[in-house]
Amino acid sequence: MNLGIITSGGDCGGLNAVVKGASRMASSLGIKLFVIPNGYAGLYNLVEFDSLVELNKLRADEFSAVLAGSEAGHSRVKIKKINDENKYNRIKEGLKKFNIDGLVISGGDDTGSVIVDLSNQGIKCVHAPKTMDLDLQTYSVGGDSTVNRISDFVFDLKTTGITHNRVIVVEVFGRNAGHTAFRGGVGAEADAILIPEVPTDFDALYLDVKEKLCSRIKNSDVKKGTYMIVVAEGLCDASGKEIVDESAGVDAFGHKKLAGAGKYVCQELDKRFKNDPEILDFMKETKMYVKGLYETPEVREVRPGHLVRCGKSSAFDVNFGLEAGGASVMLLKNGIFGVTIVDVKGDNIRYMKTEDAIKQRHVDESLIAFYEKMGFCFGRKKVNKDMKFTLINTMPERHL
């Protein structure tokens, strides 16, 4: 049996673990695994390749499962959009040329939609879920690595914020779901977390910024303080309008290239600082005021961008990636395809239909309210009402 492996979409932590997990399992089962480079572009052009790299034990040993990114390479190509009536036959001819019986494909919802498409054309695929956005119905490799990277950056930026008494706005990836901003912000104890699931009321956000920043600086013996905001790129304002730079265009899957949320938050806060007479009094009281030069607290935007995708993978993502890659090979060997790996629990490999797995999942509203009770700001007016919790005494599930 021969299999191919493809990684597609955005790069992130844990992908090399998927590739290596598939290689290790294939070698164990006597299956040959070949890299199909450059994502779906490589699959479409497979018939033109002279040879493919076999990921045998020696070749797999040349890269580390701990490194983020993918040894197999990526592209953003949607097969359905290729202007070629013969595209599916062309792909099948390429697979036949190299005697490839099935594909392990790692990617997110866009990649998954192509897997559904290929499966409907009779091409055998198994989906190893990958997206740092964490918005699939399953856990997706890359999520934990990205959350930890965001958390580290936000925590580290507090030093520059405190030194200059600044409001720091950190814009992060996540598209239209706020999981990475939410978990990364909580992990660094950010003051405010602005996510698409909660349309931002900038007046409410400003009141929280003003109260906490001014209090911290006033109560500091050396008059130092900061306020940290993590904002997801898919931010909406109070009217529900998505904040986006229309000039950025769309990607290969027709999605708007989200940009500008962090800058917009800075502008809204700056405007309110300048129009608030109490801020003038605060600046003078704390001996910071310099007419024409330093009249309001500074608000600065930081965009770590692709830094949250690169470098090293978290230990959790290495574990999950190895399991997802290995389990994908196991399913193909047993004639199961058109599905997404959920997890490996003991001797159980759990999976679900890919068309169900790629339905977008958002941050749970009750979880947002839970963190609001602990003082985190989500850019909306505070609601003083008791939350009702169901308290359950149960045996914990073993995870390790």
Descriptive report:
The chain has helices at residues 15-29, 39-44, 57-60, 87-97, 109-120, 143-164, 179-187, 202-219, 261-274, 277-285, 315-333, 354-357, 365-373, and strands at 2-7, 32-35, 53-54, 102-107, 125-129, 167-172, 192-194, 227-232, 299-302, 339-345, 348-353. With 400 residues, the protein is an alpha/beta fold. Strands 3-2-1-4-5-10-11 form a seven-stranded mixed β-sheet, sandwiched between helices. It has a four-stranded parallel β-sheet with strand order 7-8-6-9, sandwiched between helices. The longest helix is centred in the middle third of the chain and has 22 residues, at 143-164. The chain is elongated and about 75 Å long. The mean pLDDT is 92.
Distinctive features:
alpha/beta, seven-stranded mixed β-sheet, 400 residues, 13 helices, 38% helix
Strand content: 5-15%
- Report how far apart the termini are: 32 Å
Beta-strand segment tally: 11
Outline type: elongated
- Biggest sheet: strand arrangement: 3-2-1-4-5-10-11
Largest sheet: 7 strands, mixed
Q: Please, what is the average pLDDT?
A: 92
Short structural summary:
The protein has 400 residues and is of the alpha/beta class.
Q: What's the topology here?
A:
Layout: E1 2-7, H1 15-29, E2 32-35, H2 39-44, E3 53-54, H3 57-60, H4 87-97, E4 102-107, H5 109-120, E5 125-129, H6 143-164, E6 167-172, H7 179-187, E7 192-194, H8 202-219, E8 227-232, H9 261-274, H10 277-285, E9 299-302, H11 315-333, E10 339-345, E11 348-353, H12 354-357, H13 365-373
Parallel strand pairs: 1-2, 1-4, 4-5, 5-10, 6-8, 6-9, 7-8
Antiparallel strand pairs: 2-3, 10-11
